[in-house]
Amino acid sequence: MVIAKTVVGEEKPKDLWNEQLVAPIPMDQFVRETAETEKMLLCGFSSTGKTRWYLKILGLLQKQGIPKDKIMMCIVFPDRGTGLTKLYNIIPKEFVGNVFVFPINNYEELVSSTAVAEKKLKEHFKNTGIHGWLVVELLEECWRFSQDYYSRQAFGETLADYLALQRESVKERMKKISKQAGKEVEDTAFQALEGWKDWTIIKFFHNFNWIDRIKKMPFNILFTAEVREEDDKDSIFASIGNRPAGEKDNIHRVDTVLYLKHSGDKFTQQCFKLTGYDRLYSAYDITGKNGFEEHKKILKKFEDSGYKSSAIEELEKEAGIPTPQKVEPKKEPEKTIEVISGTPTGQTTTQVSKEDLVKKEKKSDVDWEVSL
Fold this sequence. Notes:
eight-stranded mixed beta sheet, 18% strand, alpha/beta, single chain, Rossmann fold, 38% helix
């Protein structure tokens, strides 16, 4: 129950039923503002081209003839600065002034930068009618920021300091486990987190207070993540043995998940999630190409081949509404005519449908005409 304070300081239940806290949006406006926006996650080991991939989106926009005043990209960036500066020349020169970087180092800066970017992108859409892009690099760093923020709030120590303080207790615990197991069991600082009952609160900081707000933002969203080993045989990533790093539910917050791989001089991308389509595509060579452009080309082929499902079907699926089965019209019993054939001494009577008889007569007419 929500509690509101009166002027004199007394508390009373707030009558939410008679409060209008959300303004309704006309459906056509809602579709215009959100329907065609991208919600993507790029994952892959370091140096597989994740940053290069999303910066090349700007090159495709230039190729499409979109003017510079209608372009905006905001990058929330917790990684090393050279990861961007060395790729500076990928950005079309006329677009450089419309790309904004938010270098962040902690949870507070993560949330604040995301909020500022949201305001800029909403204003951009209001002025241009074009959806800009919000890019958040390295979701695993955002997850660590959330853990660190909780540690500072709960224990007055950074996560690193907390783990260091717990190191000795971890060593003692692992000695006991090794003795019981009859073999040496390696200990790590992160084992200090085992048995924590506080993950729900950390998830609140990461999910409710941050990323779940982003997934509802009415503009293009792209996350990047490195990968971690995947042991779950039922996972959609079981075939490659790796999953996106960071909070495990992140894949449910996007419509598209692409896995990037770099081997020798070859770069590939593989699709592991594609909301609104009935199939995925396997590893596809994008060496020297614009990965986003190639992705859109494949989607166009899927659409032309009938693999794209309607938005209504997707909404019904999410709501648990079963897809109606196609009902074939009831077929009426076919009327037949008695046909007598044969010689006077060996006549036979058969039942033939009127439709088949007409077809037979027409065929005979055609044969006759040809013979003439």
